Amino acid sequence: MRKVVRVAVVDATRAQMTMNQSKLALFILISLLLMVSFSTFSAVLPQERADVMYHSYEGDGMSIDGPSVLVRKQIGNKVSVSANYYVDMISGASIDVLATASPYEEERTEHSVGVDFLHNKTLMNVNFTSSSENDFEARSVHFGISQDFFGDLTTLSMGYSKGWDEVGKRGDENFFEEAERQQFQFGLTQVLTKNMIVGINFENISDEGYLNNPYRSVRYVDPTADRGYRFETEVYPNTRTSNAAAINLNYYLAYRASIYGEVRVFSDTWGIDANTYKLGYIHTFGDDWILDLRVRQYQQDNADFYQDLFSRSAEFNYRARDKEMSSFKNTSIGLSVTYEYQFSPSSWLKKGTLNYELDHLRFQYDDFRNVLADAPVGEEPLFEFSANVTRLYVSFWY
Amino acid sequence: MNKQLLRYSLSGLLFTSVLLISGCATSIEPWVKPYERDNLADPIMSANRNPVSSSYTMHAFQAREGARGAEGGAGGGCGCN
User: Taking Cα atoms as reference points, which of A207, A165, A202 lies closest to residue A13?
Assistant: First the structure.
């Protein structure tokens, strides 16, 4: 009976997704046409700058680090181009790997190029991104448009992205799967007072194809096994549609400081509901130093087809034990320190900054158990871990 | 609960954008004059003042959480599995 219900839910989900997509596509098309024809105020191209960053993630037995370089240059006064080179070097073994496989090392390289056009007083941009690793290829294209209204007090922006993934599997040359993704973005930024800006963002994302991680497994009770359970491949639905909306606020304080906050709600057709809260304070010391302190809280409910322990093999049509599908919360605290240097007026460089950023994250799972612990099946302690995310970078404006 | 909130927020956005695009609200005068925008132009008021760092941070969270989207930055495939 539960299987029948699940199949019906997935069919309804597909129908809903198709309807959502067509409505959004129609809305965006009409809006874009109207927007371009009613454009009356000016927009500006992004600033010319270059950033070189080293990033590092350390947590749950994993180490991921590498460089990221972002360069943006203006061509004439109507066009701005940008390029980004990004690398993730991954090593170690998370709880998922330790439970079912052996530690590994791999590298992901991402390239992206973009062009911004200022045309008929409207700012438009196009971006291409490609990401490559030994078992995964992803390509995507993004179109965006933004327009200022009301003497530049209001900015309306819209975006559309399409992505294509090719999924492989280490040690299985015959494994080849594909997935596609569409994203619709919609944003409104409003200047409320001379010290306050509020922004609202909405995004609809829909996926179709192979959406599993081929290395993740579910576990099920098997009294004949040594440990009392065995692992088998996860099976996810092949469609997913999600909606997210966020509101953020920035407020300027009289002594050149600011506070900012954000609330985001999320819901998808797999049954995941999530909320994110962010609060930060920026303080300046003289003209050269900027300190940013922040806290962030995230909480989600598990996907409908998630279970830490299934009662038998292939118990349901769809099954997951990926901890990103479980119920959990994470809390992070972070700080950023920026030192700013102004170059002489005769130099081709205008300004430079040196930045250090650190966030400490704590993940606590409500229904994902630590199978490495010595305990009866299904009574293992709940899993939790901490991680540090570090960024060190220099930026130059020219 | 979240689905309802999302529905309301999208309706609100659509309503506001229709007002903007149709020009219905053009009779309202901008209430913050250009010469009053020094504070707003300060980099500490920018939600995305360091794109290279904010897109990485967004990716670091998105790879470990079920939620995705509405982060405010320009989109693109995250390329994460």
Answer: A207
